[in-house]
Amino acid sequence: MMIFVVVVVSGLAWLLGISMRTMMVNALKSLHKPDAAMSRAALVTSAAKPVGALEPATTAKNESRSRSASEKPTSRPVRIIVAMTGATGAILGIRILEILRDMGVETHLIVSRWAAETLKYEGNYSIKDVKNLATFCYAHNDAGALPSSGSFQTDGMIVVPCSMRTLSAIRTGFADDLICRAADVTIKERRKLVLVARETPLSPIHLGNMLALAQMQNVVIFPPVPAFYTRPKSLSDIVDQSVGRMIDMLGLESDHFPRWNGMDQSKA
């Protein structure tokens, strides 16, 4: 009897020991489950986040830098290429150089060989005098000069006066000298190009070339036709009115000539 009791008590103790151990193990496992869940959630969140994604503070900082860079004003001056060719009307090119200089515009001058010859017959200016009016000067055959590249930023170009030979070369893209190359660059870079076409009468070939160029949005054909509503009293008045309108076509403002104020005011 005593042996039976001892066996029963030992068995109960053994069973109770297993139960206690099982309960303790399960309790410990339950304590670790939240950490595991949190780890899995962190992994999922990390995987869902795009590679290279920026934190909000970093993004705002970069956006601020981008705005600052875009709002930074340009430091270069207004820059205009002025080309003179062999057509009559050299005084127009000379006067525009004088006015642009007075306006503080940076000018880049190219004088063709025949423009230099024409200067000898039209006024008292020498080629040296004309070059002294410009900020920079280039030889007409210098294919490596600054105006030959589109990466050289300008605000426009004017060919004044523009011969029919030069106009024809510009129309066909025949850039055989620096003037035509600079004009070609101005067109392709979508910058303003003003061609002061000086010829009369005009042949169908001349008119066809002018029409083809005028149909380009950034090209202006400007025959230097005098305006008489300003009642000019001298050749200088006529020149200044024409040159002032040319400067308008370049997108610049000039007060070197009288403007139309309406019929009543003009009569007065």
TrEMBL record:
EC identifiers of the protein: 2.5.1.129
Keyword Transmembrane helix listed: no
Binding-site residues for FMN, renumbered to this chain: G86, A87, T88, S112, S163, M164, R165, T166, R198
GO molecular function term, any single one: carboxy-lyase activity
Enzyme class: transferase
Keywords attached to this entry: Flavoprotein, FMN, Mitochondrion, Prenyltransferase, Transferase
HAMAP family in the record: ubiX_pad (MF_01984)
Top-level taxon of the source organism: Eukaryota
Catalytic activity: dimethylallyl phosphate + FMNH2 = prenylated FMNH2 + phosphate
Start and end residues of each Flavoprotein domain: 79-249
InterPro entries associated with the record: Flavin_trans-like (IPR036551), Flavoprotein (IPR003382), UbiX-like (IPR004507)
Segments for region (Disordered): 54-73
Start-end of Basic and acidic residues biased regions: 62-73
Residues engaged in binding dimethylallyl phosphate: Y229, R245
Any Pfam family matching the protein: Flavoprotein
Protein name: Flavin prenyltransferase PAD1, mitochondrial
Function in brief: Flavin prenyltransferase that catalyzes the synthesis of the prenylated FMN cofactor (prenyl-FMN) for the ferulic acid decarboxylase FDC1. The prenyltransferase is metal-independent and links a dimethylallyl moiety from dimethylallyl monophosphate (DMAP) to the flavin N5 and C6 atoms of FMN.
